[in-house]
From TrEMBL, chain A:
Its main location: other. GO terms for biological process: endosome organization; receptor recycling; retrograde transport, endosome to Golgi. The keyword S-adenosyl-L-methionine does not apply. Residues 153-197 are annotated as: Disordered. It comes from Neovison vison. Residues 17-121 form the PH domain. Pfam families: PH (PF00169). This is Sesquipedalian. Keywords: Coiled coil, Cytoplasmic vesicle, Endosome, Golgi apparatus, Phosphoprotein.
TrEMBL record, chain B:
One of its GO terms (cellular component) is cytosol. This is Pleckstrin homology domain-containing family J member 1. CDD domains: PH_PLEKHJ1. It comes from Neovison vison. Gene3D superfamilies: Pleckstrin-homology domain (PH domain)/Phosphotyrosine-binding domain (PTB) (2.30.29.30). Transmembrane segments: none annotated. GO terms for biological process: endosome organization; receptor recycling; retrograde transport, endosome to Golgi. InterPro entries: Boi1/Boi2-like (IPR045188), PH-like_dom_sf (IPR011993). SUPFAM superfamilies: PH domain-like (SSF50729).
Length: 257, 149
């Protein structure tokens, strides 16, 4: 079977991160008996991702062997010579003998078994997908939380704007309770040009009243908050501008291109 | 270098991330473009030499991927010899983009970086380490640093 061996060897020697390294006794190799016997051969092993390389020594410039670790399990094993801390890499594939290895001590044995068991690309992919989904959920629930508390206040503070969403639908958040103090503020002193500002100030002071400012513990949510406020500011500004233009004499509008 | 050929052959028969018949030209001088069944499985690209009923493998770690500006061709080279490239001819620009994306993601290094990124983001948002549930939060490979060989 062809393999891009030069690239593989180059990768083995490169400064790409190694996930585990150490000396192990190995019983595989050319010229060895099909059944492991004797004390095995001591080699320097380097685990990079799902690739286990062996070298004659730490200074070797070329790997001796490669074991691709997909579709395998790792188990403790009996070494041909007792008192070895042995383990075996076992594959599902037909006609494949387990790779027998032995560490220098029980701690090393445990560390290698753990590292090799979780070395497969498939395992890594599972974890990444799981985290992707967790992050999506965390972002979603954060957005919903902020959205419901912000919108619930917002919809009651813009008497002229149509309700785009029913606040009651979001997280069972009860809008009337939160907004009643603001309603009275909004209905006073609202000339069209000033209303944009009043709308902006209203909710902010309400946040402070509720001891909940944008800097409240989730400062790490800042980028989300930043985007959220940015959107709200843009919308408010547009609405304000429309009102301002709407109050100007008609001939100015006709001057446009 | 010895390697576990039987296992690699078995791997080539596993479900692929992406598989298609593409035009392919190897890195050797004078090689010609041939139709091959190309299959992406974990961080290996397998291609089947139908005339010889044999499968060949290309490890995709630290590969250098380039797409041609007219869209339907891409090449994969490797750091130790950037001139030695595998060339692929796709059926369309869309297919080419699809393969570029898939090849780029088909590396353990890419997975590792993604994992570290997601872990940090989740930690920032929730204050919790999502790897704790897997019992792997202490593994060196998931830290921002990482061991060198």
């Amino acid at each position: 079977m062809k393999l891009n061996e030069r690239s593989v060897a180059h990768y083995a020697l490169s400064d790409s991160p190694a996930d585990h390294t150490g000396f192990l006794r190995t019983w595989g190799g050319p010229g060895t008996a099909p059944t492991p016997s004797g004390t095995g051969r001591r080699c320097w092993f380097v685990l990079k991702g799902n690739l286990l390389f062996s070298f004659e020594s730490r200074e070797s410039r070329a790997p001796l062997s490669l074991v691709v670790l997909e579709g395998c399990t790792v188990e403790l094993a009996e070494a041909p010579v007792s008192e070895e801390f042995a383990f075996a890499i076992c594959f599902d594939a037909p006609g494949v003998r387990p790779h027998l290895l032995a560490a220098d001590g029980p701690a090393a044995q445990e560390a290698w078994v753990k590292a090799l068991s979780r070395a497969s690309f498939s395992y890594m992919r599972l974890v990444v997908r799981e985290l992707e989904s967790q992050l999506r959920q965390a972002r979603h629930s954060l957005a919903l939380h902020r959205h419901s508390s912000w919108k619930a206040i917002g919809s009651h503070c813009k008497p002229q704007a149509p309700d785009r969403r029913s606040p009651g639908l979001e997280n069972g958040h009860s809008p009337s309770k939160d907004c009643s103090p603001v309603d009275s503020v909004e209905e006073r002193g609202s000339e069209p040009a000033g209303q944009g500002l009043a709308e902006w100030q209203g909710p902010a002071s309400l946040f402070l009243d509720r001891r909940q400012s944008p800097a409240f513990p989730e400062t790490s949510y800042f980028s989300t908050l930043h985007n959220w406020y940015g959107q709200e500011i843009t919308e408010l500004r547009q609405r304000w501008l429309r009102r301002v233009w709407g109050s100007r004499p008609a001939r100015e509008k006709q001057d446009g291109p | 270098m010895r390697y576990n050929e039987k296992e690699l052959q078995a791997l080539s028969r596993q479900p692929a991330e992406l598989a298609a018949e593409l035009g392919m030209r190897g890195p050797k001088k004078g090689s010609v473009l041939k139709r091959r069944l190309v299959k992406l499985v974990v961080n290996f690209l397998f291609y089947f030499r139908t005339d010889e009923a044999e499968v060949a493998a290309v490890l995709l770690e630290r590969s250098l991927l380039l797409g041609r500006t007219d869209g339907a061709a891409l090449s994969a080279g490797f750091l130790e010899d950037p001139e030695r490239k595998y060339h692929f001819a796709c059926g369309s620009e869309a297919q080419c983009q699809e393969w570029m994306g898939a090849l780029r993601r088909a590396s353990y290094e890419f997975m590792r970086r993604s994992l570290i990124f997601y872990r940090n983001e989740i930690q920032k948002m929730t204050g919790k380490d999502p790897l704790e549930q897997f019992g792997i939060s202490e593994e060196a490979r998931f830290q921002l640093g990482g061991l060198k060989a």
